[in-house]
Input
Amino acid sequence: MESQKVINHIVNWLINYASMAGVKGYIVGISGGIDSALTSTLCAKTGLKVICVEMGIHQNKNEVNRGLEHIEWLEKKYKNVSHQRINLTDTFETIKAGFTFKTQNHGLSMANTRARLRMTTLYAVGQANGLLVAGTGNKVEDFGVGFYTKYGDGGVDVSPIADLFKTQVFKLTKELGVIDAIQNAQPTDGLWEDERTDEGQLGASYPELEWAMTFLEVENQSTENLTERQQEVIKIYKKFNSVNQHKMVEIPVCKIPFELGN
Output
């Protein structure tokens, strides 16, 4: 991958899309992770208005500190960047209190609720400022294992890095000089109060999942000569790809037969 050419391509794409849409720029949720760091930096390089939003919900301090350090770096480097800090903890707790005991204590449901609150916040602030929401999902998350929240971090206007593997994301952030704290951090979705990592939740590393995604794109490949770990990764990839298909395909529409609708 020719990093600088890819960076220039994405930045020009963002500029052209904003012009076509008639907006002032982009808004990005900052998590303290590498994907949001790359996305926000690419948006900043457009020269358009960019608002970075840190949205804590019982957030791990390490994640918050990384995010704020990245925002500080961005604002020093790019004068078109500003930020807002919006603590959503009380909002989350208010919504949570209205649910039944079963829902309140369903970990994944509450984690996804956090992501959907952040999406709502980004759209509120973005619309008030004439900005589009820039998504932070990468290729293997968005189109491989579906590792994102439907109508949460999956609810965006544009996806500037969704054709990049995670390993490519790391390469571009290094090229752009993103702070070491971001580059060295273990990838995490930031939806839990502990420090669980993406790899811990998925059961495979991003390079392994990228390998599986690429391997399976070739039809009728034999798995006979694969190592035991490679076969395990294939199973992990297929499992997530299967159960998360509902995120990665168009919403099913029940079509009414002509003879019933007329």
Remarks:
- The beta strands are 25-29, 49-54, 81-85, 131-133.
- Residues 19 and 25 are 9 Å apart (CA to CA).
- The mean pLDDT is 93.
- The chain is about 55% helix and 5% strand.
